[in-house]
Write a structure and sequence with these properties.
Elements (H helix, E strand, L loop, with lengths): L1 H42 L4 H16 L4 H9 L2 H26 L1
Helix pairs in contact: 1-2, 1-4
């Protein structure tokens, strides 16, 4: 019974770690796309047609990884906010790693 509980605990920790890693990955993708858009917007301010097509491409490219709700939420976040979330989730992920190491030994 104790072994089963330990295995179940480790499975839950791994699941939580994977979820956390997925969130960090998504936020990094959002941050990269948002930063790229800001850089392109600054360079091609007068070129409105390119900005519109970039927005739709971003949604299509991100659609494979991100849901529409996540894309809309990302549009409301600044790069600084995304960085803060990535840092927070990275710390949480490190905590899961340490917990897994402790539980496995």
């Amino acid at each position: 019974r104790e072994i089963d509980n330990n295995i179940e605990h480790m499975v839950n920790l791994r699941r939580d770690k994977w979820i956390s890693e997925g969130k960090v990955r998504k936020l990094k993708i959002i941050h990269a796309k948002k930063y790229k858009e800001l850089m392109q917007h600054g360079e091609k301010k007068e070129d409105n047609d390119d900005d519109d097509s970039d927005g739709s491409d971003r949604t299509e490219e991100a659609g494979n990884i991100l849901t529409d709700a996540e894309v809309q939420q990302a549009d409301s976040l600044t790069c600084y906010d995304i960085d803060k979330k990535v840092d927070k989730l990275s710390k949480q992920q490190d905590g899961f790693k340490h917990q897994l190491m402790d539980a496995s030994h």
